[in-house]
Specification:
- With 542 residues, the protein is an alpha/beta fold.
- The chain folds into two domains: 3-278, P-loop containing nucleotide triphosphate hydrolases (Rossmann fold, 3-Layer(aba) Sandwich); 286-414 and 469-541, Class I glutamine amidotransferase (GATase) domain (Rossmann fold), CATH 3.40.50.880.
- It is globular.
Amino acid sequence: MARYIFVTGGVVSSLGKGLTSASLASLLQLRGYKVRIRKLDPYLNVDPGTMNPFEHGEVFVTDDGAETDLDLGHYERFTDKPSAREDNITTGQIYKDIIEKERRGEYLGSTVQIIPHVTNHIKKFISNKVSNEDFVICEIGGTVGDIESLPFLEAIRQFSNEEGKNKSLFIHLTLVPYIAASGELKTKPTQHSVKELRSIGIQPDVIICRSEKNIPKEEKRKISLFCNVEPEHVVQSIDVKSIYEVPIKYNEEKLDKKILKIFGLKEKNKANLKIWKDIILKINSKRKKLSIAIVGKYVDLKDAYKSLDEALIHGSLSNDVDLNTDWVDSTKINKNNVSKILKNYSAILIPGGFGSRGTEGKIEAITYARKYKVPFFGICFGMQMAIIESARNMLGIKKATSSEFGNGGVHVVGLMSEWIKGKTIQKGSKKNLGGTMRLGSYKAKLNKNSLISKIYKSTTINERHRHRYEVDKTLKSKLEKRGLTFSGLSPDGSLPETIELENHPWFIGVQFHPEFKSRPFAPHPLFSSFIKAAKNNSEKND
């Protein structure tokens, strides 16, 4: 029988509901329970696939091809359990489904309303495809008090009443700010947030107080008194150096024990936190400093590349180095300054992206990496840029470009015409952008003697994709004569998946996104190998 845990947030956004949900799930797993995590997002977009990274951050892609919220990345990294399409829903998706049903006449002429039609749709999502899970943790996006969140809050209120109190509970994550001028922690924002929650019929069972300072017992008692929560169910969440410390801190607060007690469940196992403690021990240990450059255009918002950032941390831990990642704005790189900007870095990485802005700077960075034998990693768009650079400078096609950037020039990268998903032919589109990319997990075949097959220790891989443009395969023989190998292809041989440069210590481009499958306790082999190459380059230049 599944129990449901609903995680809401108050006062301000970005308090860490996703990390709280992921950490709690990990702790319950360590206790011997099966857990599933879901995210309910109140925005009107059908999914985040067409949203600007500055607006939303990273788009996380699941194996089954769903474009989802970045919190699902946290869920996977902390639990090592793959998320799926049915683990993320938005207001836009709900309204789209309901309107399509109404147009088909499925409501038999009824007036379609928020209650019951929208709330029923949300309730159905919460329990959909729940089979053998012991716990389903549902994170509600947004902040209590936001008008957009009201249908979700009403739905979980109804769901809890219908399931019974012994089958569900509410966790409310809130801010307890520290006022430095007076040296005081303030509980009033939490009180008001809980009051707002209670006004719509939800009484939190546990209040998690995010703060930069330890919360004294007296303040916890005050929160308990005014929020109608037992004192032991007021839990502090103090700022930590690494997100991988969060499960340890929640365990010290006995959050997992308290949750089990509320449900009347026994502790199946003692929570062995060795995997998390070992990671923190490595993070806090004295390690060799290593600097790499990530050349992109969304450098002002780290969340735009959240999974990438974490995958690099995982790779650095496996190589026992303290990684310094500098996010270099590609719009500021040109032929005259590229050497000056990149000369002090041990490796260069170009991540995924879209659009023409900053592309010439990325191409100059690739030229630099190729000429001076600096380890280079191109991911998705980064691989396409490497092909353009090679076409221009190795084949002499000076106007080589991508059709994504307009009709001019010679298109060595173009819109993907079609590909096979399962038994269905899929087609790309420039007009209907949402959900029309090659999305999700696909197989690739690697050359037996390639560097990348040695890294994977296999000639067959499955990786997650998110792209609508592809490399022109007709260039394959020409580029391979010049030393750029198409080392991986789709099983039918039609789509280039990986490239690598001969006579270079480490120069690899991949059309997929390996960062989505990296874990803190199981770093992705490509990132481990890339950081190792950077480490070797650094030691060579010492």
